[in-house]
Specification:
146 residues, mainly alpha, elongated
């Protein structure tokens, strides 16, 4: 017989889990919109300069974006199901998010098209992703995730 300590989740566990789910679902929604939006709609939403950049995104960056958002959503679902795998998937999601931002941070034309505040969303994404990793690892260590 295996002796495993299973901790009853706190209110904070469920509240943060719900927020993780909403945040990651929002990321999936943005990814879906980015991939399916027509050129006309994209131009209306983001401007002509950003629309011109859209076709220049490297495939590896778009693939990392997909892994980041869908992996994050799966991690949030597993977190709410109290599965230890959630912590590992949050790590993969965060790494993929960082990879997806490399091109935008190193491409001068993209930075010019996006404007001076282009860095805000990547910083928010990485900060929240790092929190998800830290919190889920903490919950795995205390036995809440099994």
């Amino acid at each position: 017989m295996e002796n495993t300590l299973i901790t009853k989740p706190s209110i904070a566990f469920w509240v943060l889990g719900g927020l993780f789910l909403l945040w990651n679902a929002f990321g999936c929604y943005l990814y879906y919109m980015d991939m399916t939006m027509s050129v006309v709609d994209y131009t209306a939403a983001y401007g002509a300069d950003m629309a011109a950049m859209r076709e220049l995104y490297p495939t590896w960056s778009v693939a990392a974006y997909a892994i980041a958002v869908w992996g994050g959503l799966l991690a949030a679902i597993l977190y709410l199901l109290r599965k230890r795998w959630a912590a590992s998937l949050f790590v993969i999601s965060l790494i993929a998010a960082v990879i997806s931002f490399v091109w935008s941070f190193t491409n001068a034309d993209y930075k010019a098209a996006a404007g001076g505040s282009f860095w805000i969303m990547p910083v928010v994404v990485v900060a929240l992703g790092a929190f998800e990793v830290w919190w889920s690892r903490k919950k795995a260590a205390d036995g809440t995730l099994s």
